[in-house]
Structure formats: C-alpha cells, structure tokens
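Running log. JK asked me to keep both predictions on one page so they can be read side by side. First protein, sequence followed by its tokens:
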Amino acid sequence: MIPKSVKRADNARALLLSIGTALGLALLPFTLLIASAAPAAQGSVFSGSSQRGMVGTTLSSPLVVAARDADGNAAANALVTWSVIDHPSNSTDGVISNASAMTDADGHASAKYTLGDMPGDYEIGARIEGVANPVVFVETAQAGVLLQPTLTSPSNAQVISHLGTTLTWDNPDGAAQYELRVVPANNDGPAIDLIRNIESSYTIEAPAFGSGNYVMLPGMTYTWQIRTTAMSGTVPEASWGPWVQRTFKTPVIGSNSISLSQFMSGGVTVSSTTPTLTWSNSNSEIFYYEVQVSADANFSSSIGSPFLYWELRHGGMTTPMNSYTIPAQYALQHAKDYFWRVRPRVQGDGVAVDWSATSMFRTP
C-alpha cells in the first residue's frame, strides 16, 4: 500500500490509497478518497438583525449567521454558539431558542429570539468555532403601550387669536408621560420641546412684554406634535409611541399699534450721530422688530442710494426696551436729515407686514 497526499481544486484534503491485490497474475487496483471540509475563518450577519418588537415577544424573523472559510466559501458543519451579550439595564436577557447549532451546507445557522422585559436594544452574539469575534445582532424592544394620543384643539390649520394658545388632547390608556414639540415653519424661530408627567393640555403663554414668554411670532404656521410612553422617569427612545401632529397659525399683526416716540414732529435735531431711537406698541404681545434708518425717505437699497440701516431687534432685550442705537462704528453723517421706521418681524412661512409711519430727525 503506497499512500500519497493530493490537493483537490476545492481545497479539501484527500488521502489517496492505492492498493493492489494480486490474484494469480492479475493486479486489481482501487482507490479510497477521504475528504474533510476547510474550517470556518470568518462570519457575518446573513439576516435578522435590526428588528423591532414589543417587549417579551418573539421576533418575526430568525437570526441567521453565515460562516465562511478563508477563501470565502461556505463553511459547513461549523459549531455556532448563541448568547445575549448586552441588554438594557435591569432587564432580563430574553430567550434564544437554541444555545448552539451546526452550520448547514450553505454555511448558515439560525436561532429565534424572544426579547427581554424592558424597552431598549438587545445584542445577541453568534460565536463561530474558529472565528475570533462573535457576529453581533442588534434587536430593539418597544414598550407594550404604543397607542397614540388623539389631538382635540386647536383644530388643524386653525388661525388662533393671540400669540398664545392652549393645546388639548386625549391620552391612550396606560400613558405615564408625554413629549410635546411646537416647531415654527422652516424651524425659523423659537420652539418648544418638553417631557412632562401625563396631562391632557398645555398652555403656550402669550408673550408678556418686559416679562418673558418670548416664543411665538405673528403670521406664522406652527406644527405641534405629541407622543406618549407607559414608562416613568428617564426612558429609552424605544419606549415612546408614534408622534401625532397638527398645525396652527398665529394671527397677522400689523404696525398700526406702533408709535415712534421720538422726533414725531420731524426736523428735531438729535444730540449725537449715534442716537438711540425708541418706540412703543400698544400690543404687548409683539417683541421682535425690524428697524430701518436712512437718509433716503424711500429707504432704497439699490446701488448708489444712501446707506440703509436695516436691523432686527428684540424689544424686550434692548436698553431701553423697544429701542435701536446707531452703532458707533457706523455713525451717521453730521448735519443731515434721516428717516426711520419700524415693523413687527415675521418669519417662517409668514408674509412681511407694512411698516409703521415714518419719522424724521436731523443730526448735529
């Protein structure tokens, strides 16, 4: 018997045994092939990762791992051991249907997974014999109460009467907290994002000039969104139910209520080339303004026109309130007539309103 080793094209090792047996003068040869598959050298997720389900439920699809040898061919008969390697704090591991399995002819092995008892992400590892690192599947558990609230008022796209309103809704059974967002069109302006213990209304206070609540601007669309969770305290993202939303629009407010309190008679000479211009507004909900100052009574911004000061001012934050001071680095010219005007600032999807009446003053 003369043994010799050969390498087949598929990289399996074969032992060739040639045996001759003499029967009289005849020699009858035969060969025996003994093959062994190449071991697994790498693994990857084939399918079943990134699933979502309710806490304590079995995921709809199995977790399938793929094993390959060093040449990328399917590694059959490789031992795969399954385990939970990470889970939300204070939760159970969940249940894996089988602790181990052998890969099939395609190099695949699978297991079913039942999520643990807390919302959040669960990491399940598939460790393939001969491969250094486990293949990791990440699955997400959601809280059992995922019903959405029902919004009641204001009605969708309603124009409200003030720069404040009360939002109301009905909560699903079992809700413990809600998250509320109020977002201006194009994210252009202040917004609200808060989480509170469950209640069925929230009042957005109208601005109170000189005090606060500087949130909503006139003539704009706002989107309000609410979602709920059955959990209390700090909760994982997966415990929240779906968002529901509506829009409302703030009232258009013009400039008729604005009075330019200085230089209304015109022709008054100010004391410096950096004067402070002040105004008042009988509508105390308005706090954000545009201000224009120019030596041109038409406030032209075209090339060759006099310099146009066009500024935004939060009237509740200036000193004095509702004022604009000409910057020292851009002081006005001496002995020259200037014109100025003011209007409420409109942003987002709103349309700019008319300016206030124009007033005039003269520099020293």
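And the second, directly underneath as requested:
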Amino acid sequence: MKENEKNNKNFKKLLEKNLTKLPKVGDTITGTVISANKKEIHIDINGVTTGLVRGREIIDESGEYSNIKVGDKVDALVLELENEKGEIELSLRRAGHKKAWETLQQLYEKQEKIKVKVIDANKGGLIVLVGRTRGFLPVSQLSTKNYPRVSGGDKSKILDKLKTFVGKSLDAQIIGLDEKEEKLIVSEKQATQEQQEKEIAKYKVGDVVEGEISALTDFGAFIKFDNLEGLIHISEIAWQRIDHPKDVLKIGEKVKAEIIEINGTKVFLSIKKITDDPWKDAAKKYKVGDVVEGTILKINPFGLFVELDKDIHGLAHISELSDENISDLKSFAKIGEKKKFKILSIDPQEHRLGLSIKALKEKKKTPTSKTADKKESKNQSEKKPSQENSKTDNKKNSDDQKSSEKK
C-alpha cells in the first residue's frame, strides 16, 4: 500500500515536470528529426512528445534546413498542440520566417553589406532575394554604374535594361524593413557609396580625365573613367548649340573631359572647357554687314537657328525674316535649307550673332540716280561762273556807258 502511494507520487512529479516542458501555440521549439521525406518530417520534442511538419510548412525561409536529415536539430513553430494524429503540428516555414527576419533586423541595425540575387524586374526596380526572403531594390537605389539611363525616360526601355540584371548578384544594404508588412527594401547605391567616395577622393576639380561615353540622354552624356561615372551636361559638351548629345558624341567613344564639380558621389565634367573657344575669332571671321550663306538648323516660334560653320551659329529673329507677317515659319524655311543672310550683330563674349534676311532687301540707290545727281551738281556749279561773268560784263558795259556820256 505504502509502496503504491510512493510510486503514484513519483509518477505525479514526473508528469508535472514533463508537462512544464510542453510548448504553447506560437512557441518556437527545438527538436531532433527522427524521420524525414518530401512530404512529412517527424520531430522528437525532449523525449516527451512528437511533432509533425508537413506540406508547405516544410519550406524554410531562412534556408537553414534546406537539406534536412535524421538527427538534425531544428527549430519549429507550434501551430497546434494536437492534430488528428495526436501529434503537435509544427512549422519550419514560420519558424524560418521568424528567424530570417530576426537575421535581417540584425543586418539592418549593423548596416552590413549583403549579396542579393535578382529574380525579376518591373518598371520601378528589381525583385531580389536576400537568402530566401523576397525584397525590392528601387531604380533610384541602383549604383551610378548600373543606373538605367535612357533618352527621354522611356519606361519600356528602362524595363528592358532592368531585365538584364535578372540572375545576377549585386552588393546591397538594407535600408527599409517591416516584418508585419513583409517589406524589405535594399540599396546598391548605399552599399557602394563608401567605395565610390574613396575613388572620388583621388580626384579634384580641374583634373582632366579620359574615359568612355557610357550613355546619352536629353540632358547630357555620361562618361566612365576608372571605376567612376560622371555627367557632362549638354551645355558643357560643345561651344555651339546642340539639340542632343548624340549630335556630336557616340556611346563607346573615348573622350577627354575636365572635372568642374564634385558633389558627394556625383562628378560633373566638361569637354568644352578643354577646347578653344571658336567665338574668340568670330569677329575676325565675320563682320557686321557681311552677307553670308547659312544652313537652317532649327525652327523655333521666335526665329531660325542658322549654322554659318561647324562652330559658329546665329539667330535670325522672326522680325528680321520678312516685311510681311509670317504665320508659319515652317512654310517659310525648312531644316537643312541654305539661305543668304546679312549679319546685324556679333557678340563673341555672349556667343551671339544676329542675322537678317529682311536687311538684304533694303532699297539701295541705283547707279543711274547717282549719275544723275552728279550731273545735276555739275550743272549747278557751271551755272555760277556764268552768272558771275554776266554781272562783270554788265558792270563793264555800264562803266563804258558812263565814260561815253562824259565825253
């Protein structure tokens, strides 16, 4: 009797001890794999009970248990304390998700560099994997090297360029994290910024570099030199006016340029600054009043842009084109057409040259009128001596007459 009471007490203590080890729903437990196949994994939980992982809950976001085998220690999240088989229902997927986001949080806080794999692209940026967690790399967060520069900002062409990164790995840093919303934002630009700053520190304003034109846009040309890339604004490409950088440059072309500004990781350069200003000699080559032939480069509502030579361009204002009202300039002139102009003004410092067609048609005195004027002037001068002679003769006759009367 006493022996039975003692055994009951021992069993009760053992039961209470083991019950305290039983997990609750939502807990993460550690167990040992006792069997595993593609459909199910059985896990021993402290020798007290068995847990079951099955279906999509086998997928592990952290990637730690991708090659699971018997004897492995694993972490799993409790979904149910008892399923239809009398086992604890577990999830590696949710435990892995939790663990993955804990790791991401640590990487975010420490601002550590990571490798991300590009798995897809959309118009806004790249879909990436950090381990097995999906994230997003916005276009604006691509490095200078990989930024998709497209003339006119054509979104379909930008997407085509972004798709070329699919399958590649990029260096990045986590810049945004929200586990509840499952949002993970990464930046390649931030990850490469430190290295870029080191590279840029080697240069200063005024340095001349040689590089290769890597992209042409409406606002300028990009040039790669060493491990850097800089912008040559359209106004710094040539002395003459150009509509688009492609008019004078080609992708892949090697050029020299001077660094004119460094702003953080941005470098601005100029080709124009290391070439002679052709306008210095414009006043020697062209004079006010000269009649010249020029080619129509562009037609604007206010006039015509005209090329006199490859370096010197001028403007013929609409008011200097005709005495009559011009309702449509495109009917008056065509791009590429050659016309005669009269130079009205030259300002080499401001790079301005004024032209006129109307001034060519101003009335000039004809040779006939000039000759007539000269003859008239001659006749007038010839008349004066005759009149003087006549006066002298009259006076003489009068004196003679007076002398005769005295006698």
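Observation for JK regarding the second prediction: The longest helix spans residues 367-406.
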